[in-house]
UniProtKB/TrEMBL annotation:
Gene this chain is encoded by: def
InterPro entries in the record: Peptide_deformylase, Peptide_deformylase_sf
This protein's record includes keyword Cytoplasm: no
Role, per record: Removes the formyl group from the N-terminal Met of newly synthesized proteins. Requires at least a dipeptide for an efficient rate of reaction. N-terminal L-methionine is a prerequisite for activity but the enzyme has broad specificity at other positions.
Name of the protein: Peptide deformylase
EC number(s) from the headed UniProt entry: 3.5.1.88
Residues engaged in binding Fe cation: C98, H140, H144
One MF term in the entry's GO annotations: metal ion binding
């Protein structure tokens, strides 16, 4: 089942999500539906708050980036109750987009390397170092679990310039090719 994507303006996107337990009701189905929603929306990552659930889980499939970064050829993972242990390396800028902010793309600066800890879909604990694009996607999706959107990293001037686009998203005046759940009905 494809979930509608929760978009900018919905207070759920600004809440800190709650950790989940191994026996979380319907977890397998939630994960399956998140994959389906992400692929249908042409995303590389999707966090639970983006589909209306304030729980600490996201899915990532960065295999499409394997041409540029061969280590991404198998980078398809479920991250449950993730933690960032450490950020390091040079900060670098990359143009980011977000399914919850359709039609907006901006340059965001993030550290190159993150050491992370998380549970997979079988609740096996992992600790890894993620670099480059994998680290970037992890940080972007992780931010969703803490109520942070990539636009929060932009300068005040950039945010002012986006005000009209953000209002259009919040009022449903954008029509991405995937289903969205708008917080405010347009007038």
């Amino acid at each position: 089942m494809k979930y509608p994507v929760t978009v900018y303006g919905d207070p759920l996107l600004r809440k800190k999500a709650k950790p989940i337990e191994k026996d979380h009701d319907g977890l397998e189905e939630i994960i399956e539906n998140m994959w389906e929603t992400m692929y249908h929306s042409d995303g590389v990552g999707l966090a639970a708050p983006q589909v209306g659930m304030s729980i600490r889980i996201f899915v990532v499939d960065a295999t499409s980036g394997a041409d540029e970064e061969p280590e991404l050829k198998d980078f398809k993972k479920v991250f449950i109750n993730p933690e960032i242990i450490e950020k390091s390396g040079e900060e670098w800028v990359m143009n980011e987009g977000c399914l919850s902010l359709p039609e907006i793309r901006e340059d965001v600066k993030r550290p190159d390397i993150v050491r992370v800890k998380y549970f997979d879909e079988n609740f096996t604990l992992h600790e890894e170092v993620l670099k480059g694009y994998a680290g970037r996607i992890f940080q972007h999706e992780y931010d969703h679990l803490d109520g942070i959107l990539f636009i929060d990293y932009l300068s005040p001037l950039k945010k002012r310039l986006l005000k009209g686009k953000l209002r259009n998203i919040a009022t449903g005046k954008v029509q991405p090719h995937y289903r969205i759940k708008t917080p405010v009905k347009s007038m």
